[in-house]
Design a protein that fits this description.
Length: 490
């Protein structure tokens, strides 16, 4: 097959590819960002090329976008989710296949857990680029195995995940329900010397390769004539279920932060570098001589300048007002980036003196966003694990993912419960039901654990018994103290 055919791009890919390249740089920053400064740093009208080149060389990037993404990632996965498995239709807790437990701890075959893959790789790509792709794959088996049991014993049914970012998935077809019928993934191998394409349909995977010649550009001059070789053709991990083994993990547009803040981040980059250039030029002033002066300018610190009578010597420097407005604009754009990402509590340094209630109100938008992210990730984890269970022959097992919740109902519920208990309602049943309600709001445990908690609350001593036991314990302690204080007989 010709490389030009394999490199056919979907219209959405063509539209978004320039944005993806740029937002990926803005997310990571660092050295690569400095090598692509011309993508973002705008030249001034009629600016000399030598001056613009110097500004490019000295450009710096304050990565507030990547830092904000890091804040969300650390908060979201601070308390890892809990994975439960229930039999269907009995709806009883069951232990999954040992290989499924191993998959949770080693999801990519390289020792990275499923949660850490989401935290360290997928989350930032999804929120910056809008989506990422996960392929569920199986080890390549050289000899065919007759039964599913033999395949499981040989490790041929031990699934693992391979991650690709949005730029690598170049073409796709979907059915009327939006399910993939075909998907093409373009990568490079052997240190960039080989182009490789994975083509998945509902039952098979094809792997094509073509050697690169000289140029490292994405498209080589001879792509119209260059041929690729088919190096693998096989059934994929979900062939038995007639599904493409690729999951697209994405967020809704209101949580696609890269799309939302791109203009503000680029504007901040230009304003910050303009301010930096202004400061640099102010620190290297140009001498100005007014009046008669025929000597060449003195450059040594041990020399001096002699002017004619009424002559003047000074330095040019920008007006102080320019510094103030430039600094204010840089800070304003920084706050706008945070606001677009629902991080009002990080936007302004002037918020440091806020009251506790005011800070809590500023935190509320980001808390709601975290709760939304949590719902997305619970669904993503459940989908991936259902695929793994299906491959392992456990289609009758349902996945229950708990955690990743960030609403404040548990705090308010606990505070309300304390106020209600302080009323001293003379009902032991009422007291126990309040405790049960608090545990439901605070823990959000699965039904089996909540049932066990309810039973422990019901079987615990009532308030009168607890008070009596406390009084007896206190009396015993006083008696022991008196005995210790009594003078000993001689």
């Amino acid at each position: 097959m010709l490389v030009s055919e394999l490199n056919t791009k979907h219209a959405d890919w063509v539209r978004l590819a320039p944005f993806w390249d740029r937002i990926a740089l803005l997310k990571c920053g660092g050295w690569e960002m400095s090598q692509r400064a011309e993508w973002f740093l705008q030249p001034r009208p009629m600016e000399p090329q030598s001056v613009y080149a110097q500004r490019l060389q000295s450009a710096s990037y304050q990565n507030i976008f990547g830092t904000a993404l890091g804040w969300y990632s650390s908060r979201l996965f601070h308390d890892p989710p809990q994975f439960g498995f229930r039999s269907s239709p009995e709806d009883k807790t069951v232990d999954p296949d040992p290989a499924v437990k191993e998959f949770l701890d080693n999801a990519d075959g390289s020792g990275t857990s499923l949660v850490n893959l989401a935290r360290t790789k997928w989350f930032a790509d999804i929120v910056a680029l809008g989506c990422t792709y996960v392929v569920i794959d199986l080890p390549v088996v050289t000899a065919p195995l007759a039964s599913q049991r033999a395949q499981a014993e040989a490790g041929a049914l031990d699934p693992y995940l391979v991650s690709f970012d949005a730029r690598q998935v170049i073409d796709w077809d979907v059915d009327e329900q939006g399910n993939y019928k075909r998907i093409v993934i373009a990568t490079q191998a052997e240190g960039g010397k080989v182009d490789r394409w994975y083509i998945y349909d509902e039952t098979t995977v094809q792997v094509w390769e073509a050697e690169r010649k000289g140029s490292t550009a994405t498209t080589q001059p001879d792509d119209e004539k260059r041929k690729a070789n088919l190096v693998r053709y096989a059934r994929h991990a979900l062939a038995s279920f007639g599904r493409v083994p690729v999951r697209r993990l994405s967020v809704p547009e209101e949580l696609w932060f890269g799309w939302r803040v791109y203009p503000q981040v680029v504007a901040h980059y230009n304003a910050d570098n303009a301010y930096q250039w202004l400061l640099l030029n102010a620190c290297i002033p140009v001498p100005v001589i007014t009046g008669e002066y025929n000597e060449p300018p003195a450059r040594s610190e041990v020399q001096w300048i002699s002017l004619a009578e009424n002559g003047k010597f000074s330095y040019t420097e920008p007006s102080g007002v320019a510094f103030q407005w430039a600094a204010a604009r840089v800070e304003q754009l920084k706050e706008e980036v945070h606001r677009q990402m629902y991080l009002q509590h990080q936007a302004a340094e002037t918020h440091a003196a806020q009251s506790g209630l005011s800070k809590q109100m500023d935190m509320q938008p980001s808390t709601e966003v975290l709760d939304g992210f949590g719902a997305i990730w619970r669904e993503a984890f459940e989908g991936i694990l259902k695929d793994v269970l299906a491959i392992r022959g456990q289609r009758d097992v349902d996945v229950d993912v708990q955690g990743l919740t960030f609403d404040d109902d548990n705090i308010y519920e606990s505070q309300a419960a304390l106020a209600v208990l302080d009323l001293g309602v003379p009902s032991e049943t009422f007291r126990r039901e309040v405790f049960k309600r608090v545990t439901r709001a605070y823990l959000k445990a699965d039904p089996d654990k909540q049932k066990a908690i309810d039973q422990e609350i019901d079987s615990a001593p009532d308030q009168a018994q607890s008070q009596q036991a406390a009084m007896l314990e206190q009396a015993a302690a006083l008696a022991a103290a008196k005995a210790d204080a009594r003078p000993s007989a001689k």
